[in-house]
Design a protein that fits this description.
By secondary structure, the chain is mainly α. Helices cover 85% and strands 2% of the residues. The protein is globular. Its main location: membrane.
Length: 172
Amino acid sequence: MGKNNSGTRRIQPILWISTLYFAMGVPFVTINAVSGIMYKDMGVSDSQITFWTALIMFSWTLKPFWSPFLEIYKTKKFFVVFTQFAMGILFALVALSLPLHDFFKYSIALFAVVAFCGATHDVVADGTYIGFLTNKEQAKYIGWQGAFYNLAKIISSGALVYFAGILEKTKG
């Protein structure tokens, strides 16, 4: 930790940039790619998968429409923390919904909320990055930003799918 211009303690940017951009990548990749693989393995038709995941992904397209309202109600930091916790809980609920008879409608509804939280997180994450770092610091940490986003992509689309396959074989 260092001190900023006002003399207060400041967390090193690498500590929050890593979680910020990792949390940005996970929901996008999970909904965009991993959910399709999961649903296909669970017997959902291609047309349903395509329609519903495309509709849910539309949240990232529409995020500029609600982003101006976010700072009216709370800070960027509040929304970063809130959306990260919410997405964690929502992903757990998706996992719990999968054994249910109507798993598709429950999981797709939960994924829709994850998508809204993920798109909101994207807006406030970038705003936090720009608002809390100087131009020189932004240039210094841009590689870390991309690295942790890409790490989220690798873990979501690689390790998560591999782990899910192991669970499916052992647990049914």
